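Re-run with default settings, no changes from the original entry. Doing this only to confirm the output is reproducible before filing.
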Amino acid sequence: MFRADSGFCRDLLLTWCDRNEVKYVVGLARNERLLALAGALMRKAERQFKKTEQKAAALYGVRLRGRYWQRLRWVIAKAEHTDKGSNPRFIVTNVVGDSQRIYDRRYCQRGEMENRVKEQMMLFADRVSAHRWWANQWRLLLSALAYTLMEALRRLALGGTALAQATCATNPREADQKLAPVVVAKLTVLRLHLSSPPHARSVSSRSRRVGPP
């Protein structure tokens, strides 16, 4: 499944996907023709918003041929209206099925992937200011490991709590998960000694420290 924003909506790329049986859902930049086709749908969403004062959205699909496209393609229009006004969106796809399901289950995952990339930036994955390549690679690896740890913690331990959907930047602050390990490096072995929690039984912190063999 190839997901991308409108910057990748090019006939050459879409045609390659069609020929190689690659499914795609790609954003389509709005233009006067698309807005005119979605006019009735946008007015419907606006009426629904005025009636309920809640965000309203409506979708429909139609086969279109763009100016630079070699063939007809399936275009899905989403007319959304909020307190900020109309927000029409369009995608082009070769996936067959219900328009609502395609948009929600297929295309919206693109934004979710971007959110995960942004979360890694919260863990300093973009800090590659060292002069040597291997040093930057090591920094990126540590950020990736930190993100994997935080994602597992959120998925396995925080499910059903107020922090189940929290970002990596929020989790450590509000969940009181800050740890201060002692890092000991010996040749190819890296040990992390974690201290005992304050409420632990009267056992010395040294005997409670754990780490990889």
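DSSP finds seven helices and eight strands in the chain. The helical segments are 11-19, 32-37, 39-52, 99-122, 133-156, 171-174, 205-208.
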